Amino acid sequence: MDTQQLQNDKLNIIHWISELQDYSVVEKIKAIMSKNKDVSLTLEQKNAIDQAFVSIEKNGTKPHDAVMEQTKKKFPQLFQK
After folding, report:
1. pTM, to two decimals
2. Whose CA is closest to 35, among 43, 47, 27?
3. Cβ contacts of residue 78 below 8 Å, gap of 6+?
4. What percent of the chain has pLDDT over 90?
5. Where are the beta strands (DSSP E) in 1-81?
6. What number of other Cβ atoms are within 10 A of residue 31's Cβ?
7. What is the pLDDT of residues 20-53, one digit of tens each?
């Protein structure tokens, strides 16, 4: 999603919320908002992310197609229909 589309979506959501008359929906939105503030990473998760960034800087990344090919070979059962 590009930046302009994101801005348009946010404005549409703001407008929609401003027109709400249903208290239960407002309460659900408030619950979502407070939940997002409480999200935090553990030290272990932060360290794992830092290690991933170091690995990317050292070794670069692999193309998506190559990763998918390796994944299909290693886990063919996940790609059966």
Report:
1. 0.40
2. 27
3. 71, 72
4. 60
5. none
6. 10
7. 898 899 999 888 888 766 667 889 999 999 999 9
